[in-house]
Amino acid sequence: MSRDLTLLWHQIRYEQLTFWRNPQSAFFTFAFPVLIITVFGMLFGGIGSSDYFFGLTALQYYVGTIAATSVLGACYSQLAIVLATRRQNGLLKRVRATPLPSGTYFLGLLAHCVLVSVVDVVLILGVGRVFGVPLPGPSHWPALAVTLVLGAAAFCALGVGVASLIRNAEAAPAVVQFVLFPLVFVSGTYMPIHADVINRVADFLPVRPFNQALLAALGGDGGFGWAGLGVLAAWGVAGALVAVRRFHWDPRPE
Fold this sequence. Notes:
Number of helices: 10
Number of domains: 1
Radius of gyration: 18 Å
Pfam families: ABC2_membrane (PF01061)
GO molecular function: ABC-type transporter activity
Largest sheet: none
Family: Belongs to the ABC-2 integral membrane protein family.
Distance between the termini: 41 Å
Subcellular location: Cell membrane; Membrane
Order of helices and strands: HHHHHHHHHH
Protein name: Transport permease protein
Helix content: over 70%
Shape: globular
């Protein structure tokens, strides 16, 4: 057990060092959601609670949805692209040849993505506080922690699943955005959706349930969005099954 934990710690440390030693990538990972919530704060900071934002103020709504988007970026988009790139340049093949267990490798990636997501969410909450959105109190922390970890795990699994279907690193950004871009918009991330048909469909997709679960964790008494968490867990299992069946460590022939 101690050996497994030591290997896991070294893998997390490796992923963190790799991430922070690419300052341009690290900067924009955090800068983009902070910039978005800052712009929204200046645009919507004076709008009070309304039915249009489901009983929340505009900025309370956007703090939740932009926080969800930052987790998507760290755990789905970047992970899928990184894995496709590492597979093509032969790094995954070399990792496979080491004594590091496959499960420890992916747990290290998950822990790294959770850490990056936490930093992103803290920054977004901080910017929201500047514009008058209250910080979550102690009663919110359990639901917020469970939602973030489950969401990160689900989107990491989906990222690995999508990476297993990508044939080469050059195609990875296009494939990732092709899947993510429409999901973000139909899930009400940048604009609340009040069309019942669209919302009913989006409720069975992974992004809207994550948005709703985060909004529930951040708002009111910090309750658990169990329905959204259940959908997230189901998508995480589906992504993991695809990854187990289709993931390749060796570069694919062109």
